[in-house]
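Appendix B. One record, verbatim.
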Amino acid sequence: MLMKKRKMITAGILFFAFLFSSCKEEQVSLELESPDSFDSIEEREEKERENSVKEDEKAEEEKAQPIYVYVCGAVNNPDVYEMQEGDRMYQAVNMAGGMTEDAAAQYVSLAMEVEDGQRLYIPTKEEIESEGQGMMQLEPEHSGKGNGDLVNINKASIEELTALPGIGEAKAESILAYRLDKGSFQSIEELKEVKGIGDALFQKIKEKVSVK
């Protein structure tokens, strides 16, 4: 009789232990499958996406460094303007309020890429005409040719400048703009200060140009 009671007590203990264990497992399962758990996963994914976007934006900001250019001459609001690397001259002119009515727009390479610290000078029609008249008065037939058929960079027209090796219309316009801005070239070495003319190109044309 005593043995039966012990067996019944043992069986009861095991039964309640089994029930308690099952309840714990069910509770854990419910916790794992609860909507709150899914919400936390979605929140983590959203935060990861936001962090990724912020990192991309930061990388883009670091890549696009600001530059500063001085726009002057025949523009409505000459001043120093902040731009981005890769911006073009037409954007700089627009920031300066556009060209004035007397601007010689055809002598400006608006597609030219600007550089940090650059001075962008827009000539007037009067300046272009005065330059042209001066060239005609001095040498009516070959205004830009000097001794030995050297191209005088202080008098040459765009057509004569583009005849030089490696000098296209954009570089010829830059030479003319530099000449109008500075007055004249004091030496042929000054050509290297013109945008787009480096040492390699200068070596190609130095024997073909003069300042007198």
